[in-house]
Specification:
By secondary structure, this protein is α+β, with helices and mostly antiparallel strands. It has 2 domains: 76 residues, Ubiquitin-like (UB roll) (Roll), CATH 3.10.20.30; 65 residues, [2Fe-2S]-binding domain (DNA polymerase, domain 1), CATH 1.10.150.
Amino acid sequence: MPEYSGRVQADGDDPATPKGPESGPSFPPGDERSLTLLVNGTPRVVTVSPWVSLLDTLREHLDLTGTKKGCDHGQCGACTVLVNGRRINSCLALTVMHDGSEITTVEGLAADTLHPLQEAFIACDAFQCGYCTPGQLCSAVGLLQEGRAQTRDEIKELMSGNLCRCGAYTNIVDAILKVKGSPA
């Protein structure tokens, strides 16, 4: 019985031929695109293939590893960044869609001092392991900029796309309310 390789064999494939990343589909030379992104206030030129996610561009091409890769399916919010002031899941966005866009990652929230939300997360103990914190912070900044959340319940609903496996939700909402100026 042949050994399972994890790959579906198509008609005409020779199972004895090595199959690896170097033998994958080939794309025409020059298929990469050169783009300019305004990342955390700095113009950055990147050259990427059309199918590369914004998350992978930030982490692998620009060495901005604060943005986390959680599920890679847009379900956990760990990869949340701000694009032109709006929060998005960067794992679902293709980099080529954002040529010329202003992108803010967790590294760009603080200048010389911490962002007020970062200070509030510390004061309210709104993190435990810290893995989700960058996405939670970017999402909270976007939430406050949207101006739609007026109550604790609205904040909980509008932050529901960002998961925290440690269960720090109450403290995250407290931190957002503290910055918003409402009583926690």
